[in-house]
Amino acid sequence: MSTTINAAPAAPATASSEMSRPSVLRRIMRDRVAGAAAIILTVVVVAALFAEWIAPYDPYAINLLNVMAPPGGDHLLGTDSNGRDILSRLIYGTRNTLMLGLVGVIFGGLLGGLLGILAAFYKPLDGWIMRLVDVLLAFPAILIGLAVAAIAGAGMTAVLIALVVATIPDVARVARGAAIGVMEQEFMEAGRALGVSDFTLIWRYLTLNCISTIFVFLTLRFGQIILIGSALSFLGMGAQPPTAELGMMAAQGRDFLFMAPHIATVPSLAIFVIVLCANLLGDAIRDVLDPRLQQ
Amino acid sequence: MGRQIIHRLVISFPALIGVLFLCFVMMQVAPADPAQIIAGPDAKQETIDAIRLELGLDRPIIVQFIEYIGRVIQGDLGRSIISNKAVSEELAQTIGPTLELMVGGLAMAIPLGIMLGTFAAVKRGTLIDRAIMAISVAGVSMPIFFIGLLLIQYVGFKWDLLPFTGRNGPFWAGGFTSMILPCLTLGSVLIGPIARLTRTAVLEVLGADFVRTARAKGLRERTVIIGHALRNALIPVVTLIGLQAAYLLGGAVVTETMFSWPGVGRLAVGAIISSDFPTAQGAIMILALAFLLINLLVDVFYVYLDPRMQRG
Q1: Residues on chain B touching A131 (C-beta within 8 angstroms)
Q2: Which of B143, B153, B287 is facing A143, going by the closest CB pair?
Q3: Mean pLDDT, contiguous 10-residue spans, chain B (312 residues)
Q4: Could you give the ipTM of this predicted complex?
Q5: Is the peptide bond before B60 cis (omega within 30 degrees of 0)?
Q6: Among partner residues B141, B254, B287, which is closest to A235 by beta-carbon distance?
Q7: Do A150 and B26 make contact, defined as CB atoms within 8 angstroms?
Q8: What pTM, to 2 d.p., does this model score?
Q9: Using the beta-carbon criterion (under 8 Å), do A237 and B271 form an inter-chain contact?
C-alpha cells in the first residue's frame, strides 16, 4: 500500500509547479494593464473587507435634511434620496456584490467541477450528468434567478442560488473536457494498475491536474457572474432595502435619474470598474496559466 | 439539411422536457395550491375541489407531469391572480414586443460587431485595432442597465432625441422611434463579443491559402475580405450568437423593465414582485422555450453556412 501512496504525487507535480505563486504573480504584473487591474481590484477588495473602518459615514443613517446632495463637500459622492452617504453605501455595497460573485464562482465551481470530473471518470454516469447539464444550460441565469425568486421570494439567497446553479453547467463541461484529456494519460492507467483507490485517483491524479483549467475558467467567469448578480438585484430579485448592494442601489437611483443622476450612475460605474478589472485580470491569468497558449 | 434539422430537434427534446419538468416542479414547490391558482382568486371551495379532482392532484407525480404537458400544449397555463386574464392571453400579448426587441437588438449588434471586428483585423496592430478591442472589452464589462441609464439620461431626457418609455405600437406603425433606445441597449451587450470573435476569426482566415489564392488572382482587396475571408469567418460568429442567446434573453428582461417595454420579461418581473405565481411561471416557461428555439435556429443556420456540417 505504501508504494501506491508514494506513487501518487508524481501525477499532480506538473500542475503544482505551474501554479507556483511568485512566478505567476510576477508574470501577470509584467503586463501593465493587468497589473493596474490587479492593483485596483486589490484596493476594492480591501475597502470592502474593512468597510467598517473605511466608510466615512454609517451607510444606513438617513438624513432627510440633506437628500440627493451632489458629489463634493462633506459627502464625496453625494447622498441618495434618503440622505444616506453614497460613498459609504458604495463601500458596503461592494462587499455584498463581491460576495455574490465569490459565492457563485466558488460553490458553482465546486459542484460543477465535481460533476464534470465524475462524468469523465465514471463512464456510466457521463450520459446522465451531461443530460442534466444540458437541461441546466436551457435556463439562462436570469431566468433561474426569476424562478428561484418566484418560489422562495426575492432576496440575496435567491440570487446566490441562481448564480451557483448558473455556474454549474459551464464549469461541468469545462471540467469534463479537461478530465477526459487527463484520463487518457498513462499515469492514470499506472495508478489503476497499482490498485490506487478511486478516491485517490479522482482527487490526486485527476482533480489536481484539472484544477488550473477550472481555475482559469472561473476567473474568466467571475466578472460575468457579478454582472448577472447585479442585474438580478437591479430587477428587484436580490438584496432588499435598506441593504446596500450595487445593483439595487442603481435601481433605487433610477427613480431619481433626472433630478440626481449620480445616485444611479455611481454604483453602476463601480460595477463596471470591478467587472472590467476582473475581466482584464482573468485574461492575463489565462495567458499565464493556460498551457496551450504558452506553446 | 432536413435530416440535420430533425437531428437537432431530437437533441433538443430532453432539454425541452427538462424545461417543462422544472416549470412543473416550480408549481409543486410553490407556496400556493395549483387548483386554487387555476380556479382564480375568487373561486368557491367546491370549484377548487372539482378542479383538484379534475387535475388529478392525488395521482402519482409522473401522471400529473404528463397531464401538465398536455395542458401546456393546449395553452392552458391558468389565470393571472392580479388581472384574472388567462396567462396564455397575457403571454400572447407580450411575446411580440419581446421578439421585436430581440430581433432589433440583434439587427443592431450583428452588423456593427462584424464591421468593427473585421476593421480591427484588417488594421491589425494599429491604434484603431487597439481602440476597437478596448471598446469591446469595456462593452463586455458594462452592466446592461448602465448603458440603458446613460441612453435614457442623455439621448432620451437631456437631448430629447428619442422616446425612452413604453412602445408606440409595432415598428411599422409608428413604433420605430420608441424601439431604437431599447434595441441599442440590448444590442450593446453583444457588440463587444461579436467584434472580438470576428477579429480573431478574420485574422485566422486571412492567413489561409484560399485567401492568398484570391489575392494572387488579382481580386480587389475589398472582394477578398468581404467575399472570401468574412464569409468563412462568420461560422464561429454564428455559434457565438447562439452562445450569447442567454445574455440576449437576460438582457431583454432588464431592458424591458428599464424602458417599460411591454414584453414577457417585464411581465415576469412584475408578476414575481406582485406574487402572481401562474403568470410568473408561464412567462418563465415561454422565455426558456424561446431560448431553446434560438439555439435551435442557430444550429440550423450553422448547417446552412458550413456545408461540411451537412455531411458530418
Answers
A1: 14, 18
A2: B287
A3: 75 80 77 68 80 73 84 86 88 93 91 92 90 90 94 94 87 85 92 89 84 86 82 78 80 94 94 85 88 81 69 50
A4: 0.85
A5: no
A6: B254
A7: yes
A8: 0.87
A9: no
